[in-house]
Amino acid sequence: MVRPRAKLRFPWSTGRARLLPLAVLALALTSCSFIEIDSPLTIFEPAGPFAERIDGLFWPVFWTAVVVFFLVQGAILFAVFAFRDRPGRKEPKQTHGNAALEITWTVIPTLILAVLAVPTVQAVFDLTKCGDDAMVIEVIGHQWWFEYVYPEHGGITTANVLVMPEDQEVCATMTSEDVMHNFWIPALNGKRYLVPGQTTILRLQADEPGEYWGHCAEFCGLSHSLMRARAQVVTAEEFDAWIAAQSQPAEVPAEGTPEWEGLQVFLNKGCTACHAVDFADGSGVDDVVRARGTFRGPNLTHFASRHVFAGAYLPSEDIGYDEALTEWLANPPLVKPGSFMPDLGLTGEEISDLIAWLKSNT
Amino acid sequence: MTATASRPAATIFRRPAATTGFWSWITTVDHKKIGVMYGYTAFTFFLFGGIEALLIRVQLAGPNGDFLTAAEYNALFTTHAVTMVFLFVMPAAAAFMNYLLPLMIGARDVAFPRMNALSFWIFLMGGLFLYSVIFFSDPQAPLGIADATGTTVAGNLDPSYNTLLGGLPDGGWFLYQPNAGPSYSPGLAIDFAALGLQILGVASLISSVNFIVTIFNMRAQGMRLLRMPVFVWMMLVVAFLLLFSLPIIAIALFMVTFDRSFGTSFFQAASGGDPILWQHLFWLFGHPEVYILILPAMGIVSEVIPVFSRKPLFGYAAIVFAGAGIGFLGFGVWAHHMFASGITPVAQAAFGLATMTIAIPTGIKIFNWLGTMWGGKLRFTTPMLFAVGFVSQFVIGGLSGVTHAIVPSDWQQTDTYWIVGHFHYVLFGGAIFGIFAGLYYWFPKITGRVMNETLGKLHFWIQFIGFNLTFAPMHWLGLQGMVRRTWRYAPEMNMGPWNLAATVGAFIIALAVLIFMVNWIWSRRKGQPSGLDPWDARTIEWTIPNPTPEYNFASNPVVHSLDDFWHLKYSEDDEGRPVRRPDADDLVVRLDHEGRNPTEPIHLPNPSYFPFIMSLGLPMIGYGVIWHTALWGKILIGLGALTTIGGLLGWGMEPLEEPHDDHGHDGHGEPAIAH
After folding, report:
1. What is the CATH number of the domain that holds A195?
2. Domain of A269, in residue numbers
3. What is the CATH number of domain B32-273?
4. Minimal Cα–Cα distance from A353 to chain B, Å?
5. How distant is the Cα of A233 from the closest Cα of chain B, in angstroms?
6. CA–CA gap between residue B299 and residue A20 (Å, rounded)
7. Interchain contact, A294 vs B359, CB within 8 Å
8. N or C, where is chain B less crowded by C-beta within 10 Å?
9. What is the mean predicted confidence (pLDDT) over B279-295?
């Protein structure tokens, strides 16, 4: 047999320095603990009973896995160091197997898994059916934004920000009007697909008021990565107030004001092909847009009541509200690839008027 | 014999005779040459897939990256997956299977040598066809959605987002409908993907039948099923998985092609189809596919660890049956890819439990590899390093895999980078480390030389560090909510540092692969000659000279036990420790001499043009289907069909033997037997 000749020698080829790569790796892995800032999408900060239920399942499994990990990796490392070929080491006994051991390492994992299976199956059945007192909110997926409809509150239609009261179960009743999406607010529950032509449900509930981030988790085309969501959890009183405000029609601004100019831009530049605004006189374009099916933009009646737009992608840390809105209206597909809102060639003045009008839609 | 004598030798059907040079490769039916071609082709695609991965990682190195456009990013992650799964890991396994399987069962070739060549050429045509979309993508084509007539009615009409790379298939390797359907992906890219995968499936299906027949019928005398090397067993399981899973994806891909090209609506919800049906069909293939990718590596590792532990494989039967068990269970867990899709709680619970059970046979394998090393005399050559690296990292992938079986937990983790980390530990830390172990281990069989050990160890350590630096942080990122297939993430998400680490890791992997390539090229010419038995090996592929003679075995081997070669060299003392037989060194010298000097003429299958010709027809049909509305598209379908059927006819009418004249390899060309 060949004893390969080492033709190249590196410092770490010999002696204790062989451990160097291992040390580097260990350092890299332990540095995990230095970064403790959670993302707003983290699953480690469950904010309601359903996410907590999942969290409660995750950790026992995680720690079991950690124990198994250290036992097996420890055994591998032990074997690597204890049984490596050293000068004078005797030839090993030719063992072919051991029935008792085989049974042991079949039965023990089976038992561990059986223990884990019980709460798993219970949680599956508990979490896939909404409670009787749940408030229904419809979630409709579009490329690339989420629409929310409140059928128990006169069919209020909003987008991007899901407003819901604290301590109240929400039964999200979900579908999609184009491709498959996947609705996910990590702090409130796991995720569920939005399937065109089908309805899926997801239980959501938050214990405390607050803002929780969400994201579309299923690849849904060009701007999948920019299809985000927010859940705005408010107190019961705030929620009632919000419902009352959302139930109001849009106000027609006084003629001659920038807001009025902005409305003219909205009505005359093609925006109404996709966007509805509910005016007191019942005009607005909602029915037309609905009848057309899939190509629908968010209802703008209370646009300014939402602090994010463009699929909850804007504004962000990098760019403020007005600036982001200006860029967005100037050339939407440049901001959000594939956006169905085309570049309408608006002038700077038209954009600022439009923004003035949009911001008046509180 | 005689079939040839009685038939006039029509020149068009003459067998090719070249044994070297370009045409010998085109016409070869030698399983070794085919294996080598599979290997080099697969490795080339590995480099493609790797470059795609690096581009992806550069884009994700920091928040709001602008290195790639969204269209390019989506195309690259899709093509990276398709390439690595179908054009690298599967054909790399086919390379090992082709080259080694006949050697390990003591055969001179596979059961159907021309079909074997056909598999390779169809695979190559499928890969080239798939990538050829880049020549046909229209950089000026508008993006967006199309109505029923295919006219783009809305969407981004700004062509600056569509570039050359953006023309690659972009629907995800899973081609979820309706996003990858005619309305939402109106370009040609998905058509090329669906038809390309279809062609690749034909290649794998042919291979699987060929190897099942070979394993069942062509084993050497005494090579009972339970004396076969574990690699052969795992390949048998893989062949059955291919045989049963490929027809499912073939049908499903046809349905996609019909939806896209011929106006059906199997999966298009807008016209009454069911997109969830596609998911079922895809994963009913897709999950066994995972085991198709990993079992060959498990087979390789099961060969390497005993040799370098100087012990027989611990629990041989347990490992074999665990492998077969994984194969069976692999067909019963597909819906764990769909726990978030809204399937019923009963289905979720059932598939969750089934998924848990997979951990049991997988654990059995890990423990038995560990048992093999335990108490051994471990030599950490490069193949052994990669094999132990495989075991260690596969454990991580297996443990993170168990979390998917905890269904509600999976609702949080699915479609996040947790999954990306998980399956790269299985497919890179597992399959690719296994493939490298096999390349270093069996390199002498191809070249008669061993690869440089210093470079090999350097390769291992750099790859090990780079791999963990790339993929370990992805687990964390996933739990922090980083969704998969995301072109950008916001700075507020605090995902920058670990993404940067992953990007650095990816380039470290690239460095490791470069070192491997240098080593391979250098060692082919300058590596130390290996002799017959460089590793003191156990199995019969090492009883023949290196590089392997064209005829494999000079005389048909007879097998007396598992690890037959080892028992020829070693007896055991009272304590059960191996003692090298006094004549073992002489035996090795004798085997080398006898292996090079066959005593009687050896019949080998003759080369043939027709597998190559047949394979040419399939991409022609593919292009024809894509442009079927044009007259020339229809003509191309006809020409493709004629080429394939013509090739088949030629194949059928080809004489079994050319009358022996110029097949000069001291007598091997003589027609001794006709089948």
Report:
1. 2.60.40.420
2. 258-360
3. 1.20.210.10
4. 24
5. 20
6. 31
7. no
8. C
9. 96
